[in-house]
Amino acid sequence: MDINCDLGEGEELQHCARDARIMAYISRCNIACGGHAGNAETMRLSLINARTHQIAAGAHPGYPDRKNFGRISLTMPRQALLASVREQIQALQSLAQEERVTLTHIKLHGALYNDAEADDALAEDLVQMFAQAFPTLCILALANAAVERAARRHGYPVLREGFMDRRYLNDHQLSPRSMPGAVIEDFDHCLTQVLALTAGTPFPSIDNKPLKFSVDSICLHGDNPQAESIARKLQQALQRAGYRRCR
Q1: Bridge pairing between strands 105-106 and 138-142
Q2: What is the spatial distance between Cα 199 and Cα 197, in angstroms, rounded to a whole number?
Q3: What EC number is given for this enzyme (predicted)?
Q4: How far apart are CA 194 and CA 165, in angstroms?
Q5: Which residues, other chains included, contact 198 with Cβ-Cβ below 8 Å and sequence gap of 6+?
Q6: Domains contained in the chain, CATH given
Q7: Which of these, 191, 190, 187, 189, lies nearest to 240 by C-alpha position?
């Protein structure tokens, strides 16, 4: 079972200590690299913590908008956006080399993640840049959406991501947070969806229609105040179900 979490998004080293506690229960971390959050200190410490906990470390670039934490779509010239994303990944990659950590993947953040998954042209441009600039990495992308399709067209490795705490529409896309019931708050329901997504067995859409598809990685939201507790409960529940954490 591969569980990924967005980390390194605090501005102080104490936030990295909290992140490190979450790392004990996950297999993959996506480290903010200066666009929406993060700085050289938090990036370096996050990499060190990932190495200590023996989990995969990847870059988590977003719109260069710290004021809004990368959660608002920006209107930018395409080349300027691509350059910003590339520079964010390179900043983390440089620190990773110093700390003898091999980056494994890229996961877009926030509004850029959503925009790329909804826009074939943007997904195409981003994946083409990734394939050229970062050929040894893979992309962590929403299952059944634009970035996965672009990655497969370019032969770029892709990990299909699923969400434990979000309902899906009937077309397999994530339901917008603005829809009533889009966020699953009951842990038992989250676990049921995790097991279905991992095994490729049916689970209900937001309209209670049966969906069936599988994913390679499950997202755990690190900015949830209860993230450490949720991660621990998830690991314990998965162990009882016969799964083990990927290494």
Answers
A1: parallel
A2: 6
A3: 3.5.2.9
A4: 9
A5: 1, 162, 214, 215, 218, 243
A6: 3-240 (3.20.20.370)
A7: 191
Q: Dump strand ranges (E) for the chain.
A: 3-7, 28-32, 56-60, 105-106, 138-142, 158-163, 203-204, 210-211, 217-220
Three-state secondary-structure class, residue 171 = coil
- pLDDT tens-digit readout, 34-58: 999 999 999 999 999 999 999 999 9
Token pair belonging to 177: 């947070």
Report whether 223 contacts 210 (CB < 8 A). no
Q: Would you call 218 helix, strand, or coil by DSSP?
A: strand
SS3 content of the chain, % helix, strand, coil (to 5): 45, 15, 40
- Phi-psi sector, 88: left (phi>0), alpha (psi -120 to 50), beta: alpha
Q: What is the pLDDT of residue 243?
A: 79
Q: How confident is the model at residue 245 (pLDDT cuts 50, 70, 90)?
A: low
φ, ψ for residue 232, nearest 5 deg: -65, -45
**pLDDT confidence bin for 79, thresholds 50/70/90:** very high
Q: 120, 126 in Cβ contact below 8 A?
A: no
Radius of gyration of the chain (CA): 17
| Confidence band of 246 (pLDDT split at 50, 70, 90) | low
